[in-house]
Amino acid sequence: MSIHARHISYRRGSRYLLREVSLTLSPGRMLAVVGANGAGKSTLLKVLSGELPATGEVRLEAHPLASFSARELALHRAVLPQQGQVHFPYTVREVVHLGRQPHRTARQEDEQVVQQVMALTDTLPFADRHYQSLSGGEQQRVQLARVLAQVYPPQPHPRYILLDEPTASLDLAQQHHVLSRVRQACTHQIGVLAIVHDLNLAAAYADELLLLKAGRVVAYGPTAEVLQAHWIEQTFDHPVRLLYEAGQPLPFIVPVSSSIASLHHTPHS
Prior knowledge:
35% of the residues lie in helices and 26% in strands. It has helices at residues 41-49, 70-76, 92-97, 107-120, 136-151, 172-186, 199-205, 223-226, 229-236, 258-264; strands spanning 3-12, 15-25, 30-34, 55-60, 63-64, 77-80, 159-164, 190-195, 208-213, 216-222, 240-243, 252-255. Strand 11 and strand 12 (252-255) form a beta hairpin.
């Protein structure tokens, strides 16, 4: 059971934004998509969510994505866009309740789910505050709670959340706070695809990485296997160093400044 994309391509006019992309998103796993600006990351997420049509094949639980109604899709997967804005004076709890709209379930059941996902995302302490009064990090956790409320509980069939830069504009502590809660959702058999700009941050939480450049896959697979200098340099067109620390399974990726890189490539007289 999974979201399975096979050879998907998407073109806008004569320009391809995605070319022959294949991947699998499985329940209980986190896949991070990383690439430079304009690599096609958000386009890929929109194709996988059913928002954009594409050539190739996208299947959800072995069925073509196009065979699902909008409500059926909403019951299987939830999407967190880059700008999850709320323009009404809703409380935090009311925002999280918005995720329950596709379910048409009893109020008591909705309340139970909302309570569970707010506990998971540490948003219960400010449940009755107005959403607009929160910090950026707090708002992002509320939006995460909302998308989790949409896909809870992850039975009788697997559920998925697709997150477009959930750590954008957050400070270091807030980034880790949000992704640790995303990672915890995986323990509830929810599959997670997240677009993450920071490769080190993505590697710290993701089971798998997909490196994307100009709409094409540079590398895709288990995180430890993808973290190779030549693939990272190909993805970002910039030299890097991999620093290994004793007891740590993954390297830390450090970009090398252009001046230092040129010194290393200057022949000795």
